[in-house]
Amino acid sequence: MLLLLSLAFVVFVLGSYTINKESNSPNIHQSIETMEFGSNETPISRELTSFYTGTSNNDHIGDSFLWNGVRESDVDPPPSLTSHHPCDSFSFPPPPPPGLRRPGPRPCPVCYLSPEEALAHMPKHPFESPVLKNLTYIHEESPAKIEEGQGGSDFGGYPSLEHRTNSFDIKQSMTVHCGFVKGTKPGFQTGFDIDEDILLELDQFHDVIVASAIFGKYDIIQEPVNISEMAKKNIPFYMFVDEETDSYLKNTSSYTDDNKRVGLWRIIVVHNVPYSDARRNGKIPKLLLHRLFPNIRYSIWVDAKLQLVVDPYQILERFLWRTNSSFAISRHYRRFDVYLEAEANKAARKYDNASIDHQVEFYKKEGLTPYTEAKLPITSDVPEGCTIIREHIPITNLFTCVWFNEVDRFTSRDQLSFAIARDKIREKVDWNINMFLDCERRNFVKQVYHRDVLMNMKPPRASSRLLPEPPASPRGRLVGGRATTGKKIPGQRGRKRHRKVSAGGRNMR
Ligand SMILES: *[C@@H]1O[C@H](CO)[C@@H](O)[C@H](O)[C@H]1NC(C)=O
Ligand SMILES: *[C@@H]1O[C@H](CO)[C@@H](O)[C@H](O)[C@H]1NC(C)=O
Ligand SMILES: *[C@@H]1O[C@H](CO)[C@@H](O)[C@H](O)[C@H]1NC(C)=O
Ligand SMILES: *[C@@H]1O[C@H](CO)[C@@H](O)[C@H](O)[C@H]1NC(C)=O
Ligand SMILES: *[C@@H]1O[C@H](CO)[C@@H](O)[C@H](O)[C@H]1NC(C)=O
């Protein structure tokens, strides 16, 4: 314990540092926390080791593989940028010296351009959406279940299996279910309603927005740091909250009806949330941002439990523009297989076993296979979805619509449905998702919670429940997938303390 305390002190004192060379050189953001690794282990080697062996504790992978075989990302940079990009010479630093063993995911260094240089790399033209050019959405005033035992909701409109199949048949022009099926405009009499004056604001054009949400008072607002003046001026930060969180904020912060702000965040109050489960409501802005903001080019989604600590332009340059990608998401730090993820979710009581089994069985019948290297260049079937970086073009919009439809039909565990939605689109068109390392994600978002804060939060209250949902276990529902008071994962008590503070990235929503 003493050792842990002194270690914590060292980390606290050192904090994190930035190597900022003169202008024109890249910024290497490195967290000193990487020093805590055991011998020969870095976050990268751990992620890769576990990627190739399915364990996180393997010594027989040679250094040459680890340090030559590793690319900083899974996608090659486009030729036009390779020759001169200042980050070309960047490589992960050698493993830290042997030291204390501290299992658990950690950040690793990421090479960013300066915010100004990053902005200069914003593509002049939109990424070309393969095949699909015109995506429209199904509108239905009185949606009803068609099939026996069908999941879904009035908000999502109960797409039939045929609808579902058609939504994966990529054509030039498509019309799909994508939430908000009622009402004339997302946010207006659709459920997830937003005041009319603010709806107009959401229609405005922006190159980039950052978005997040708090439902059921789960989270406290994290002020982003290290945001350039340029980004503060040009990039709106939107935080969706329900009425309950709204009154809580008014009580506990400087936020009022007049300014509607907490720090950089513009607060948007949502009325008539469609689900009783806060985790489900949270999926609406996360996956359907393109419906709420029809006129933006790029968005960064950050779960509210995380603090953004790197400038949005730097993140977009690093994870989208440099790799010529339209969609980027980190992968889970040690699970790459949907079946293993499902088992882990059951063991951790994230959702009732029967609903998880039903979902995974359904996918198995559709041909989803366990993850193996044969799927390369796909490096994982399991995302860590607490951040999403994307360009809003028809194919990415379709992807998040069909992903949302899976979440609405089955469990709210979006990491279980990610791969099936991605792979069914990829069967038809040449489109890639940049799945970067979880340790790279941890470089730009930090979980800053204290356990005490979590313990003092009340569980979300059920409100306008529209339809019966598969029962979530009381514990899973109470804590929304974050720290629990008990033995959530048996046999890991020794790690518990550490996990509480740092494992929050594992989007267990
Ligand atoms: C980026 O990717 C798109 C789609 O895969 C491709 O059409 C385009 O040529 C690529 N651009 C560069 C610069 O590599
Ligand atoms: C897109 O599709 C919709 C619905 O099929 C159609 O009404 C509209 O004219 C199409 N737009 C373009 C630009 O093709
Ligand atoms: C971000 O800001 C924090 C707090 O101001 C600072 O300690 C840290 O060094 C900065 N990180 C980076 C990567 O610039
Ligand atoms: C606001 O704070 C007061 C005093 O702490 C408390 O009595 C009241 O219930 C709070 N209201 C809300 C909506 O949290
Ligand atoms: C659910 O499944 C997990 C893992 O398979 C198991 O440990 C747990 O006991 C099951 N829970 C119930 C309520 O059956």
TrEMBL record:
Pfam families: TOD1_MUCI70. Keywords: Signal. Residues 1-15 form the signal peptide. Residues 135-450 form the TOD1/MUCI70 glycosyltransferase-like domain. The keyword GTP-binding does not apply. Residues 72-101, 460-509 are annotated as: Disordered. Residues 92-101 have a biased composition (Pro residues). The keyword Plastid does not apply. InterPro entries: TOD1_MUCI70, TOD1_MUCI70_glycTrfase_dom. Transmembrane segments: none annotated. PANTHER family: ALKALINE CERAMIDASE-RELATED, TRNA (MET) CYTIDINE ACETYLTRANSFERASE-RELATED. This is TOD1/MUCI70 glycosyltransferase-like domain-containing protein. The lineage of its organism: Eukaryota, Viridiplantae, Streptophyta, Embryophyta, Tracheophyta.
